Amino acid sequence: MLQSMTGFGKASGTFSNKKITVEIKSLNSKNLDLFVRMPTIYRQNEIELRKLLGKRLDRGKVECNINVELIGDTTSQKLNEKLIGSYYQQLVAISDELNLPKENLLATLVKMPDVFATESEELDAEEWNFIVSILDQAITEHIAFRTAEGNLLAEEFAIRIGNIKSAFDEVPKYEKSRVDSIKARIENNLEEFVGISKIDKNRFEQELIYYLEKFDISEEKHRLENHLTYFIETLNKPVSQGKKLGFISQEIGREINTLGSKSYHAEMQKLVVGMKDELEKIKEQILNTL
Questions:
Q1: Which of 132, 126, 18 is nearest to 68 (CA)?
Q2: Which of 67, 110, 183, 272 could form a disulfide with 260, with the two C-beta atoms 3.0–4.6 Å apart?
């Protein structure tokens, strides 16, 4: 089952007086590139969190945000009353000395350094286990998003491969005229530059067979057909294999290019151009698969 590397997952829950929300976003990347944002109190467990994310998300540029919102009338921030009193006395003294108004002193005070003191907290195991459970839900949502996106990509890839196969099935219609055209071109060139009377027919037949073998596309057709079948088989595997699909698409491109270089036939070249166009559309999207 194909998965996209683009995804989003979100989960939240309430623990004690805290509403904890976990959001996970991801974009495509060759490797796992993790960025984690969380309150300072949880930093001690960041390595464990990264392992949990890496184990289930595998690859991608992943951003994980853990937000904590205090609910009710409880807060971890307290006013530093002694410091505020000291600031106030200094501000009043300056106001009296300079004859300045005192109406907005409170607004000034709350902007002064360190007027809010955060009470130190310790993370207990029960709270962290709750966060891990919320993280697990967010990862599950994220994977579901990736899977839904992957299903859409898989459908598109199957259509593109089908279009390549349809064009490929048209190739045999032009093979006889292609061979006749190559043979006629060689004969005309020989007659023009050497003269028909000077041609050794036995030697000519040998050389003609040699050149026709060089332009034979039987092996390319066989390999291309196998690669197209293998692509679909890999696409339908239960585990997403985006990297392998990328390698197979490269092999498909190699055989299509060889067909184009050996075609020497206008209609066949049109088919090759169409196949290349479909393959490029696959390659553009396959970079975003897991």
A1: 18
A2: 272
The pTM for the full model equals 0.77
Per-residue tokens: 51: 């392992």
Residue range(s) in the chain whose domain bears CATH number 3.30.230: 7-74+124-145
For the chain, 290 residues long, the average pLDDT of each consecutive 10-residue run is: 95 92 95 92 92 93 93 66 84 83 79 66 86 97 97 96 96 85 74 65 70 81 96 94 95 95 88 96 94
Domain 7-74+124-145 - what CATH class?
A: alpha beta
Check: CB of residue 248 under 8 Å from CB of residue 227: yes
Return d(Cα 53, Cα 33) in angstroms, integer: 11
Residue pair 29/35 in contact by the 8 Å Cβ criterion: no
What is the length of the chain? 290
Cα 114 to Cα 39, 43, 159, 257, distances in angstroms: 19, 23, 63, 69
The number of helices, as runs of H, and strands, as runs of E, in the chain is: 9, 6
Pairing state between β 32-37 and 60-70: parallel
**CA atoms of 105 and 117, how far apart (whole Å):** 20
Q: Which of 39, 57, 206, 70 is nearest to 145 (CA)?
A: 57
Element (H, E) at 126: helix 125-170
3-state secondary structure of 32: strand
